[in-house]
Amino acid sequence: MTKTALDCDVFVWGLGGMGSAAAWRLARAGARVLGCDQFGPAHDRGSSHGQTRIIRKAYFEHPDYVPLLQEAYRLWSELEQFATRPLLHPVGLFIAGAPDSVAVAGTLQAARDHGLPIEQFTAPAARARFPGFHFDDHFAVVWEAQAGFLDVEECVTAQIEAAKSLGADLRFHVPLLDWQPDEHGVTVRTATETIRAAKLVLCAGPWAGQFVPGLTVRRKPVFWFPAGPEYRLDRGAGTFFFDLPVGQFYGFPSLDGVSFKAAKHTGGEVVYDPANVDRSMRPEDVARMGEFLRQHMPAAGLAPTAHSVCLYTLTTDHHFIIDRHPDCDRVVVAAGFSGHGFKFTPVVGQALAELALNGGTDLPIRFLRWDRGN
Ligand SMILES: Cc1cc2nc3c(=O)[nH]c(=O)nc-3n(C[C@H](O)[C@H](O)[C@H](O)COP(=O)(O)OP(=O)(O)OC[C@H]3O[C@@H](n4cnc5c(N)ncnc54)[C@H](O)[C@@H]3O)c2cc1C
């Protein structure tokens, strides 16, 4: 088959957070884009649902993410202009824990390395600044004012809309079966047809294990609890993150004045089949959150008003993989977002678009290459 028989320049496999961003950035670059997802737009079966995601710049996971975040903030703003509605809410974030905890020490390191503004509080000062929260006497608390949260489903929807407005052909409820590269392109087989593309971008989220070895999927329950007035957005509350010896916990201000969302970042049961996940509310998960709330958020109610189950797809070093496939230059892969990828979505889309269309990118993603020994 020759290049003239191609149905599109780039085929995007999976249209969740990363795939919808890739479709948008590819279409923005003028590519003919076709993409499919097995579920509907902004669905709740993968990793990009549940109302909100934290965004921050002083990145404790690795300072090398900071330049990518600067670009992500710029692209979120571009998307907001397209969508004509706010998607990123810079309400601030505090991170609390022992001064040498990964989150507190890493945040300060990233802020120092990149000259980012961060305020520091002792525990007594933090109790006065963040009413309704309890901080142990030895805690250090750092506050990043430009951090905040993203409306996750709204972001995915806006990326899909932006891609479509630029001519991308995005199809939903279409399961993809397999792909086969050759000299002239890639053949993608869906449940109903066969599509020829010059390049393929794989954004399969929790289903990426079929292409990328070494990933682990974990079940992550998230909860909404009754909010005391101290936790309300309209009373000035921001997002929060605690790095504790028993694990890392995070949450969001109450958006409706009634309940707020909180969850445990660390841990979670291993999932062997992402299509078959226990989405029930388990008493042991609620009890774990109850212990955290009793200790650190005494003005919260302990009986959840709602819950959801989401999936983390972890690499062994918890850093993303964004690279060309090692066996095929025509295939670009984004995988293993390890429970912290959403804030990067548009810049990941941009990197994927450049890798697919130009074979390389100037974005600083070398530390996220496939063969780093992860
Ligand atoms: C509870 C929770 C909290 C999180 N909190 C944060 C946070 O605060 N900040 C942050 O930055 N990140 C956070 N993350 C991480 C972030 O949400 C994820 O890294 C990101 O959403 C991953 O996007 P993705 O595109 O890789 O996966 P997904 O959005 O799941 O997309 C993958 C898509 O591929 C499709 N697909 C797969 N296989 C096929 C197939 N064969 N045929 C058709 N379609 C297919 C799926 O249907 C799906 O739509 C959190 C994640 C969870 C679960």
Q: What do these coordinates show?
A:
This protein has 374 residues and is an alpha+beta fold. It folds into two domains: 3-49 and 153-210 and 320-368, FAD/NAD(P)-binding domain (3-Layer(bba) Sandwich); 54-151 and 215-314, D-Amino Acid Oxidase, subunit A, domain 2 (D-Amino Acid Oxidase, Chain A, domain 2), CATH 3.30.9.10. Helix content is 25%, strand content 29%. The strands form three sheets. Strands 5, 6, 7, 13, 14, 15, 16, 17 and 18 form a nine-stranded mixed β-sheet that branches. Helix 1 (17-28) packs parallel to helix 5 (152-165). The longest helix is centred in the N-terminal third of the chain and has 18 residues, at 66-83. It is globular, with a radius of gyration of 21 Å. The two termini are 37 Å apart. The relative contact order is 0.20. The model has no long low-confidence stretch (mean pLDDT 97). Flavin-adenine dinucleotide (FAD) is lined by residues 14-19, 36-39, 46-48, 50, 53-54, 175-176, 203-207, 220, 222, 263, 310-312, 337, 339-343. Flavin-adenine dinucleotide is lined by residues 14-19, 36-39, 46-48, 50, 53-54, 175-176, 203-207, 220, 222, 263, 310-312, 337, 339-343.
